[in-house]
From TrEMBL, chain A:
Statement: the UniProt record of this protein carries the keyword Signal: yes
Function: Part of a binding-protein-dependent transport system for a sugar.
Keywords: Signal, Transport
Source species: Thioclava atlantica
Any one annotated GO CC term: periplasmic space
Family (UniProt): Belongs to the bacterial solute-binding protein 1 family.
Gene3D superfamilies in the record: Periplasmic binding protein-like II
Residue ranges of coiled coil: none
Higher taxonomy: Bacteria, Pseudomonadati, Pseudomonadota, Alphaproteobacteria, Rhodobacterales
Name of the protein in question: Probable sugar-binding periplasmic protein
Span of the signal peptide: 1-24
Superkingdom classification of source: Bacteria
From TrEMBL, chain B:
GO cellular component: plasma membrane
Main location: membrane
Organism: Thioclava atlantica
ABC transmembrane type-1 domain mapped to chain residues: 77-292
Protein's recorded name: Binding-protein dependent transport system inner membrane protein
Length: 417, 299
């Protein structure tokens, strides 16, 4: 017994020292994988804002595998009963963890700050479990963008931007005649799926998108509209240069920048590449929504895990409030290239693409054409998303016909559910 | 006879006799737990409905049914067989050939041996990245040949779903055949010169000498080379990730990359554990009978 006491005495002292050192505004440990460039800078904004309020921030960045490594670490920490305060976690992943009983809610903060009235309803429902907020969104990325090189378009005599996929095909054919590669694309499963979901939105509209890619309705998945979407994807395959397999998305963006291809279909993180190269939106590159008059939503968020102790709970509340504060939403998104998740933040300092994105977001909320992204883990569980990615990428890289693709897709989705 | 067994007992002698067991047992316990314990855990998980987190409710073979209904798994299995059979066969053929040529008392043998062996010192990540650049039609070999005037030269296996798996074979053979050579060379050096001289006196041709005398003597070397290359082939994960990323599409997926994707990217621990168990079964099915027959012959 005395031995036990001797062993634990230093630990107790250390624990006291730590809690003594922590200040009144709480402690948070934040697990994330924003470790490069603008992302690291953006998370640095959050850290300094939190520390400015007198709290203690423990940074746990885990790079690698687009978050896979961080998720593995998270699993181990939750199993060991020592979860971080907040984790960069999004979409249905939030629900998966909530079902395991691993999350704390921050409903108190959300109610007093009235989050419901400032967040798009689609996004708010993703942040909630059982009617209570368990996560706070930091930004909104738009997935359905086309990035274009205006000089190439002018060279080929194209003046009006396509607003339907048929018009896009006409433009692309014209570019092909002029000897220009119409579409820069990186052949990685998630990029194939990004293009696919934008096509589904353009061909079927928001209502169909929601039925097929969010509700996974078998009738919609096997419908003629889905066949037509695959037909359009097959057409796009013809507009891509032969070296696309395995290419990273930023290299495809560079092709548009250097004038090797006219368009890229990619979310607004591509804008960061243009801006970093000193290009001016509207002059050196254009941002055009893909056809469909909708808005495909992608959003990063911090999810609050089940920590205990007053110090940690306090930190969690402060962090939640801070993430949703208009000031932070503005500085963070200026650094990351996205737009604020709050719809009431003025966008005066943002560029024209961000302003357009915000405008279309409000219109999409109004018209109920705001849809969550399937390819970016906002709409469906990761297991089902994986089946979509497998099928779409196989279709894109083979000569499978659209009818077969639809049949196999509906089988795969049924299997994964 | 007055000495009782008790008086015979001496701690020093007891320790001396037990020392090897005492020294080895922690290691034995550790490997028992960390290797076989986790194999058992993985096998058990494959019978549960585990998703994002492991759960321990037994549900029978559902994950295996799911696995064998997934087209991507068949691609992975087929790729494993294409890759490992070609990789082992070609590496060994090149290895033997180089070893026999080097065994002819050539000048600067040490230098040449080192040159062939050096690729082995690279990690598969480096090999994969370098070959990715060389095989990329827009950057590497194809472009070089076209710029040199051969306008119709085409070598686009890397971006062709049907042939991409063979680019993995090329890179892996480049990396490992030097190693096979070293193993065979060591074996050749251990063949008794007297036997070769006797064969020469009996008028045996060099070809006959090698095929009927030397290679059969090298049998144990074949065994170890096959085992080493086979486990490299089955483990091949880093090479796939670096060279093709599993693409185009998932055309070059292997069981190891399949398992990684399901466990860590898709939160499907159950299916991943089922695929891991299938991999283990495959290895056991191939290696055990081979080991058994070989060890019985040499014994």
């Amino acid at each position: 017994m005395s031995l036990m006491r001797k062993m634990f005495a230093p630990v107790t002292i250390a624990a006291l020292a730590v809690s003594g050192a922590a200040r009144a505004e709480g402690t948070v440990e934040v697990l994330h994988w924003w470790t490069s460039g603008g992302e690291a800078k953006a998370v640095g904004e959050l850290k300094s804002a939190f520390e400015a309020q007198g709290g203690t921030w423990i940074d746990s960045p885990i790079a690698g595998g687009g978050g896979d490594a961080a998720m593995t670490a998270l699993r181990a920490r939750v199993v060991a009963g020592n979860p971080p305060t907040a984790v960069q976690l999004k979409g249905p992943g939030i629900q998966e963890w909530a079902e395991q009983g691993a999350l704390n809610d921050v409903q108190g903060v959300a109610e007093s700050e009235n989050w419901d009235s400032v967040l798009p309803p689609v996004l708010a429902s993703i942040m909630k479990y059982d009617g209570k907020y368990v996560a706070a969104p930091v930004n909104i990325h738009r997935v359905d963008w086309m990035w274009a090189n205006p000089k190439l378009l002018a060279d080929a005599g194209i003046e009006t931007m396509p607003t339907t996929w048929d018009e896009f095909n006409a433009v692309a054919d014209k570019l092909m005649e002029a000897g220009i590669t119409p579409l820069a694309h990186g052949g990685q499963p998630w990029q194939d799926a990004t293009v696919f979901e934008d096509v589904v939105l353009g061909i079927g509209g928001a209502e169909f998108y929601r039925k097929a890619l969010v509700e996974l309705d078998q009738e919609a998945l096997t419908s003629d509209t889905m066949v037509a979407s695959f037909d359009q994807l097959r057409k796009l395959r013809g507009y891509v240069d032969p070296n696309f397999p395995g290419r990273d998305w930023n290299l495809a963006t560079a092709m548009v920048m250097r004038g090797e291809a006219a368009f890229q279909i990619m979310g607004d993180w591509a804008k960061g590449e243009f801006l970093a190269a000193g290009k001016v939106p509207g002059e050196d590159f254009l941002c055009i929504p893909t056809p469909g008059n909708g808005f495909v939503l992608n959003s990063d968020s911090f999810t609050f895990f089940k920590v205990s102790g007053e110090e940690n709970l306090k930190g969690q509340q402060v962090l939640a409030s801070l993430i949703m504060s208009p000031d932070f939403q503005k500085t963070f998104n200026l650094a990351k290239g996205s737009i604020p998740a709050r719809t009431d933040v003025p966008l005066d300092e943002f560029d024209m693409c961000a302003k357009k994105s915000h405008e279309d977001l409000l219109a999409a909320i109004e018209n109920d054409t705001l849809v969550p992204s399937m390819a970016h883990e906002m709409a469906i569980p990761r297991s089902v998303r994986g089946e979509f990615l497998d099928l779409v990428t196989e279709f894109f890289n083979s000569d499978m016909d659209s009818a077969t693709a639809v049949k196999r897709l509906s089988d795969a989705v049924a299997r994964a559910q | 006879m007055a000495r009782s067994p008790i008086s015979q007992f001496s701690p020093a002698r007891w320790l001396e006799r037990r020392l090897p067991v005492i020294v080895v047992s922690p290691l034995f316990a550790l490997s028992l737990f960390f290797v076989y314990g986790f194999i058992a855990w993985t096998a058990y998980i494959s019978f549960t409905p585990s998703g994002v987190m492991p759960v321990y409710d037994f549900q029978g073979l559902a994950q295996y049914e799911r696995l064998w209904a997934t087209p991507r798994w068949y691609v992975a299995i087929k790729n494993l067989f294409i890759f490992s059979s070609l990789f082992i066969a070609i590496s060994m053929a090149i290895g033997i050939l180089l070893a026999i040529l080097l065994d002819q008392r050539v000048r600067a043998e040490g230098l040449i041996r080192t040159v062939y062996l050096y690729p082995m010192a690279l990690s598969f990540i480096v090999t994969g990245t370098v070959w990715k650049w060389m095989l990329n039609p827009g950057l590497g070999l194809q472009r070089l040949m076209r710029e040199a005037g051969f306008e119709n030269f085409t070598f686009d296996w890397l971006v062709n779903s049907h042939y991409a798996i063979y680019t993995l074979v090329i890179a892996a053979v480049w990396q490992s055949s030097g190693y096979a050579m070293a193993l065979f060379l060591a074996g050749l050096r251990s063949v008794d010169d007297e036997i070769l001289k006797a064969a020469a006196v009996d008028g045996s041709s060099p070809w006959k000498t090698y095929t009927s005398i030397v290679l059969p003597i090298l049998r144990p070397v074949f065994l170890s080379t096959v085992i080493i290359l086979a486990h490299l082939a089955i483990k091949s994960f880093d090479l796939v990730v670096a060279l093709t990323g599993g693409g185009p599409g998932y055309a070059t997926d292997m069981p190891a990359t399949f398992m990684y994707a399901f466990a860590f990217q898709r939160s499907e621990l159950g299916v991943a554990a089922a695929s891991a168990t299938m991999m283990l079964m495959t290895i056991i099915a191939i290696i055990v009978p081979y080991l058994y027959s070989e060890l019985r012959k040499t014994a």
